[in-house]
Amino acid sequence: MNETAHKTKPFRLKVWGENACFTRPELKVERVSYDVMTPSAARGVLEAILWKPAIRWVIERIDVLHPIRWESVRRNEVGSLMSPRSEGLFIEDARQQKAGMLLRNVAYVIFAHLELTDRAGPQDNLVKFQEMFLRRAGAGQCFHQPYLGCREFPAHFELIGQQDEGPVPHIEDRELGLMLFDLVHDAASDKDHVHHCGPGCRASFFRAKLERGVLLVPAPGSREVLQ
Predict the structure, then answer these.
(1) Using one digit for the tens of pLDDT, what is the confidence trace for 89-120?
(2) 125-163 burial code (b ≥16 CB/10 A, e <16)
(3) Do 7 and 115 touch, CB atoms closer than 8 A?
(4) Which of 2, 101, 103, 147 is the most exposed place for a label (fewest CB within 10 A)?
(5) What kind and span of H or E run contains 39?
(6) pTM (2 decimals)?
(7) Which neighbouring-strand residues pair with 215?
(8) Concatenated DSSP letters of 45-83
(9) Which domain range does residue 43 map to?
């Protein structure tokens, strides 16, 4: 790869797990998943393997390998936080039961490339980060356990070699509606790779469509991305 290139060639990473929940942000109380993995969740998996301030992951495409299946669950959650000045938290008094719609038996192939950010230094180049990712992903290494939307749903992953054919998507066409594209932080910081929205953060969306098992993701900053 030419070191003057502005992005790497696409990597392919297979990810899978027993359950997943790519939560719809418009549903505040109940956890209801999108039908397929979101670009934001895909980026989170890749950043669990390799993240540096000098690089950013750009998701190009997500292949859905298994039929979309649902599982309804009810879960107990604590509805309040314990204050340092409080005497304690009585779980039975704060317990809340909430419903959730999860995906089960999921598997995807993420297509993504790396780009340098404006925080890259003179010693940073794409060749270095490409080799770093290939080495780490090929060995199953990660900074923290990647997950499928929520931390309680761990993601297994496997790098697909550039010369390998790779798995075939499950053939299905489906309109997915307005889907979360990413969380945009107003100010750059070391927390740019965190996948929850707080102060100084806004969500962006795109109109998603599954065609023959393939979700094509628009480029950041394109007209298809709705702020």
Answers:
(1) 554 554 566 678 999 999 999 999 999 999 99
(2) bbeebbeebbeebeeeebeeebbbbbeebebebebbeee
(3) yes
(4) 2
(5) helix 39-49
(6) 0.84
(7) 62, 210
(8) HHHHH---TTEEEEEEEEEE-S---EEEEEEEEE-SPPP
(9) 11-79+90-216
Spatial distance between the Cα atoms of 57 and 48, rounded to a whole number of angstroms = 11
Here the tokens at position 39 are 């670009």
- Cα angle 56, 59, 65; round to 5: 140
Residue 44: pLDDT over 60: yes
Residue 222: inside a domain: no
CATH of the domain at 62: 3.30.70.2660
Number of domains in the chain: 1
Q: Which amino acid is at 70?
A: W
Give domain status of residue 109, yes or no. yes
For residue 47, the one-letter residue type is E
| 149, pLDDT greater than 90 | yes
Given a cut of 80, whether residue 82 has pLDDT beyond it is no
For residue 129, pLDDT beyond 80? yes
The span from the CA of 208 to the CA of 193, in Å, is: 23
Residue 120 CB coordination number (10 Å): 17
Q: DSSP letter at 129? A: H
